[in-house]
Amino acid sequence: MSDRRGSLFIEVIVVVVIIVLLAGAYLGLFRRSVGGEDGKSMPKAATDKARGVECANNLNQLRMTIQMKVAEDGQYPAALDPNNSMSRCPVSGKPYTYDPLTGSVRCTTPGHETY
């Protein structure tokens, strides 16, 4: 009977330690050791990465839309639709810059210039 109590106590302690470690990682308590770059917590770094991917996807979709417009009309559109949710960076909320002479679309958010 005493062996069973001892093993149950150890199991409870292991579960509590696992819960504390997961909560610490989620809340960003281990910023440098878990999150890595810039001292961001793991969820924050993953969210920023996902928004960066969304920004790159938005730019690719806009570029394909512009190419389709050029194929139909033979010219670049005069401007991007400002009401389209894809015409803004999901990270900064800034509108993308568009050059109607060349049809190029760029993001001005730091770190997104190469998208």
> Tally the helices: what do you get?
3
What is the overall silhouette? Answer: rod-shaped
How many DSSP E strands?
A: 2
Q: Let me know the largest β-sheet.
A: 2 strands, antiparallel
Low-pLDDT windows of residues: none
Rounded to an integer in angstroms, the radius of gyration calculated over CA atoms is 24 Å
Structural class: mainly alpha
Fraction of residues in helix: 40-55%
Average pLDDT level: 83
The topology string of helices and strands comes to: HHHEE
Residues in β-strands, percent: 5-15%
Strand order within the widest sheet?
1-2
Distance between the termini: 64 Å
Describe the structure in brief.
With 115 residues, this protein is mainly alpha-helical. Helices cover 55% and strands 5% of the residues.
Detailed description of the structure:
A hairpin with a 4-residue loop joins strand 1 and strand 2. The N and C termini lie far apart (64 Å). By secondary structure, this protein is mostly helical. 5% of the residues are buried. The protein has a two-stranded antiparallel sheet with strand order 1-2. It has helices at residues 2-27, 31-35, 42-73; strands spanning 97-99, 104-106. The mean pLDDT is 83. The protein is 55% helix and 5% strand.
Any descriptors?
single chain; 115 residues; mainly alpha; two-stranded antiparallel sheet; 3 helices; 55% helix; rod-shaped
